[in-house]
């Protein structure tokens, strides 16, 4: 039995998938929000730091009466005096660079033009051909000079983005690790909660499997309120199926038994040979029809004993029943010295009433004994499927008799043929086998035995999911 590729996901898988998607979306949005908040905070800290350098430099500068710029004796941070340190300061006016820190000398920095006094411009990270990316803070200032126009200058403070990127990178790695760990922990907790919440459904499934395997007769009643109605309904269905099958079997048996008595009286009357009996030809015709009716009733009685496939049936071991049947048949056919060989899996089980198994094995092996010359082979094997509720079963009976002509096989397995038309040449027993095969939705094959040369009857009960 093949697995359906479109089989829907289980409730646990659906819940786990939904939780995973929701958790990924939530953690993704949370991570993005935290990252942006930290980035903006770090960027603001960078701007504030450059602003503090600006004020420190502004406090240290002075201007002579002739407009000459006097730089501070010492920078606010030693890196301003170290070339290539990543921290730079430049003063410009409308004619170009008026002053540059030692670290900025000979550097091509992305500074803007002159700014109006009090105007502030913060940008970055900006690309610099020789120094990578930098943050730049520029602000315009104006120094008052006695008896002269104010001196308008623009002070630029720049810093490499390497420290900024290292800080952001470290934060992002830490954030990713924490969010990943949190996501795994939340998902594991969610799975535990889901399994605990869905455990009653899992228990229903397990108990239903035990009932279907025949290991239990009904579902238990200690379930939550939401499932108690379901389990009561399933128990009602199980009990109803058993009662219905039993009632139908008894009804058919009662009907067949009730007809046998009047038929026996009719037969006795016509076979008595009394003076007022009908003519011999009439007696012969009536007795022939009575025998036919009696055969049909015997057939229906056998059908009544065979219950057919049941969804909830206890497994019946095959080996012991097969051996007992064959021992009895060997005694019946002792004069013909028929030998029956076995090839039976000791673990093979039949999921159905014991009467059905006896009907199948008994009629097939009896048919084999009837037509065999000296040998009959009975084989029973399991059809295993790890995903099935019940394992399958294969029963094969072979003999070394004349076999069955191929043109008669189709008629032998034909459905809907009744009475003598159906069982001609093979007796009532084989018709019962065909009925049971259809009742169990099994498969029946008739061909020639490769091992013994006679007829080969095979019954295949597929695994049930």
TrEMBL record:
CDD domains per the UniProt record, alphabetical: HATPase_PhoQ-like, HisKA
Enzyme class: transferase
GO molecular function: ATP binding; phosphorelay sensor kinase activity
Any single Gene Ontology cellular-component annotation: plasma membrane
Domain called HAMP: residue spans: 195-246
Localisation: Membrane
Membrane-spanning ranges: 12-34, 175-198
Reactions the enzyme catalyzes: ATP + protein L-histidine = ADP + protein N-phospho-L-histidine
UniProt-listed Pfam families: HATPase_c (PF02518)
Domain of life: Bacteria
Domain Histidine kinase: 254-465
SUPFAM superfamilies given in the database record: ATPase domain of HSP90 chaperone/DNA topoisomerase II/histidine kinase, Homodimeric domain of signal transducing histidine kinase
Record EC number: 2.7.13.3
Keywords associated with the record: ATP-binding, Kinase, Membrane, Nucleotide-binding, Phosphoprotein, Transferase, Transmembrane, Transmembrane helix, Two-component regulatory system
The protein's name: histidine kinase
């Amino acid at each position: 039995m093949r697995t359906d590729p479109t089989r829907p996901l289980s409730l646990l898988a659906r819940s786990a998938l939904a939780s995973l998607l929701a958790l990924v979306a939530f953690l993704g949005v949370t991570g993005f929000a935290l990252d942006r908040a930290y980035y903006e905070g770090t960027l603001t800290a960078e701007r504030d730091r450059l602003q503090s350098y600006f004020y420190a430099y502004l406090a240290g500068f002075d201007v002579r009466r002739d407009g000459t710029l006097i730089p501070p004796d010492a920078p606010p941070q030693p890196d301003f005096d170290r070339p290539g340190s990543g921290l730079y300061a430049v003063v410009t006016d409308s004619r170009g660079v008026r002053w540059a820190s030692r670290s900025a000398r000979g550097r091509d920095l992305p500074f803007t033009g002159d700014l109006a006094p009090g105007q502030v411009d913060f940008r970055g990270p900006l690309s610099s051909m020789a120094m990578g990316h930098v943050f730049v803070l520029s602000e315009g200032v104006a120094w008052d000079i006695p008896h002269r126009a104010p001196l308008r200058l623009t002070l630029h403070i720049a810093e490499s983005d390497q420290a900024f990127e290292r800080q952001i990178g470290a934060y992002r790695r830490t954030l990713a690790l924490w969010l990943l760990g949190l996501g795994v922990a939340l998902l594991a907790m969610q799975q535990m909660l889901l399994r605990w919440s869905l455990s009653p459904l899992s228990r229903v499934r397990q108990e239903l499997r035990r009932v279907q395997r025949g290991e239990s007769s009904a579902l238990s009643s200690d379930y939550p309120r939401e499932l108690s109605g379901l389990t009561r309904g399933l128990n009602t269905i199980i009990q109803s199926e058993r009662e219905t099958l039993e009632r139908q079997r008894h009804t058919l048996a009662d009907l067949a038994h009730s007809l046998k008595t009047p038929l026996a009286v009719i037969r006795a009357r016509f076979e008595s040979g009394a003076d007022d009996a009908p003519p011999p030809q009439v007696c012969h015709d009536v007795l022939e029809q009575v025998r036919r009716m009696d055969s049909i009733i015997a057939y229906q009685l056998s059908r009544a004993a065979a219950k057919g496939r049941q969804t909830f049936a206890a497994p019946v071991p095959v080996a012991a029943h097969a051996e007992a049947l064959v021992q009895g048949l060997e005694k019946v056919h002792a004069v013909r010295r028929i030998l029956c060989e076995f090839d039976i899996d000791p673990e093979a089980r039949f999921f159905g009433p014991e009467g059905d198994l006896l009907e199948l094995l008994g009629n097939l092996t009896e048919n084999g004994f009837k037509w065999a010359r000296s040998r009959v082979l009975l084989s029973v094997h399991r059809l295993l499927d790890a995903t099935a509720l019940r394992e399958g079963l294969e029963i094969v009976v072979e003999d070394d008799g004349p076999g069955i002509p191929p043109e008669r096989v189709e008629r032998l397995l034909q459905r809907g043929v009744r009475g003598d038309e159906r069982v001609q040449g093979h007796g009532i027993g084989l018709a019962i086998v065909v009925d049971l095969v259809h009742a169990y939705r099994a498969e029946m094959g008739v061909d020639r035995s490769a091992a013994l040369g006679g007829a080969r009857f095979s019954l295949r009960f597929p695994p049930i999911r």
